[in-house]
Design a protein that fits this description.
Shape: globular
Oligomer: single chain
Number of helices: 9
Strand content: 15-25%
Strand order of the largest sheet: 2-1-3-4-5
Largest sheet: 5 strands, parallel
Order of helices and strands: HEHEHEHEHEHEEEEHEHHEE
Distance between the termini: 35 Å
Number of strands: 12
Helix content: 40-55%
Amino acid sequence: MGNEANAINRPRILIVDDEAAIRRFLRTVLDAEEFSLHQAETGHAALAAAAAIRPDLILLDLGLPDLDGVEVIRRIREWSPVPIIVLSVREREDDKVHALDAGADDYLTKPFGIGELLARMRVVLRRSIRQAPEPICRIGGLEVDLPRRRVTVDGAEIQLTPTEYELLRLLAVHAGKVLTHSQILRQIWGVAHVEQPHVLRVNISNLRRKIESDPTRPRYLLTEPGVGYRLRAE
């Protein structure tokens, strides 16, 4: 009875990859982490499994034999907010941006480190069980008090412009998740500014000068080259 209860409480992970060797490798690694594992080899099988199993997290390859992984993400996002981490050999920035814009929560390029994969899985799983954003986001010495619109670093209050605060607030609400340039520009400045990445770069630079002890080696506000930014979650 106890074993059955433990199995029920384990996070359900759906692995979507057409390569049997990759599925075996992930199963071997993740079995030791007490996940409940499920597999799919094609895009259509992944869609059916996502609806039937209702996984807590999907690990998705983009190069599937029937549907492109980005299309799988789009179809799942029509009805489910389930976290999706892309695991792909595709290294082009455009591929990462398209997957994240379609609704993926994170993107790891193969080959990847197991430690990094497990860390990112923990981040999205923690975020997905929250019913609402935490009223105060604490990351190391950085604290973003959302109700009071107050930001402190190591206890000292930081004065931000309204735009800088909204930018930090957006990243804090999605801490640990990569937000693409276009996602951020659309949210903060509106659709008309989506093709103006320099506006974002300037504000990120200004924000780093205020919250980072060394803006050239940021601890909190991290860059995903060519893709976007994320606020460190732990």
